Amino acid sequence: MAVGVRTQDLRKIYSSAPPMAAGGFVARGSAKGSKQPKPQITALDGLSLEIQPGEIFGLLGPNGAGKSTTVGVLTTRVRPTSGQAWIGQHDVWKEQAEVKHLIGVVPQRPNHDFSLTAREILIFHAAYFGMGSKERNERADSLLEKFKLTDRANQMVRGFSGGMMQRLSIARAMMHDPQLLFLDEPSAGLDPQTRILLWDIIRDYNREGKTILLTTHYMEEADALCHRLAIVDHGKIIALDTPQQLKASIPGGYLLRLRFGNQTPELLQRLQSLAGVREVRSNDGTATDVYADRGGSLIPEIAAVAVSAGGELSDVHISEPSLENLFLHHTGRSLRD
Questions:
Q1: How far is residue 67 CA from its own chain's centroid?
Q2: Cα diameter, the chain
Q3: Which residues have a Cβ under 8 Å from the Cβ of 245 and sit 6 or more positions away?
Q4: What pLDDT, on the 0 to 100 scale, is given for residue 250?
Q5: 5-15+41-245 with 251-320: one CATH topology?
Q6: Would you give the DSSP letter of residue 156?
């Protein structure tokens, strides 16, 4: 039976020594040997969410947004500073053994034992979970075939490519048939063909009734796979819904990224008054984001306004509703910033 996930007010604050503290550095004005306060980095800031059983749920955000820390808490690898988390009915930090039997985890970077073959890695993993010899061998054969690794099954993994390593990581996580699969940036560094294979396998596993939580900063991945997703930034959820509903929430739908030779308050005001324009945002002295009901047909009017306001239109980029636009609208910056 598929299990869900719930978190309540999760906070995680990391502390690390200042770089200058190394080598016996003593801050000016402080007594030798006195302790300097450590900087605090807030990775999660009151994050609450609920993932339904049998759902493919995505955490979308840039590097450092808190996605991997969330996965770390839910998989018992990171202890939260405060708050609670549950896998099914089990409190993650009070019932770790029960939780670990329910979940499979694929880390951002492969962490295989290079002294083992691909088959041995799968079989040893299954043995940790108490699977019998016949069952784990049959399961290993099936997954090696599914992930197109059968011809490399008895080879040491040290010679595997990055894509093969990632496929083996996911096969290993699925060996004990977990009810909940965590995928932390599963497509990072994969070629397009391997990425499509991975997406198909994720969908197939979900069709078996499994719950899947994945983190990603690939817009197309979140859009293609997720039933619902949360956009995370600075340890907080800034939007949560289906990909379709999130894209529909963008003002007007179209985003026109404009650059002017001379951007003035008058120009911005006149852009706002154009028919179909929902919102105008100035990013700096020359760049402007315009959210509107239409795209290309608006450009001649924008150019005319720019000329009459003494600002030359030098660059235009038009995009239709996307998760990238949504993130930009909520945060004022790109996912790649």
A1: 6
A2: 79
A3: none
A4: 80
A5: no
A6: B
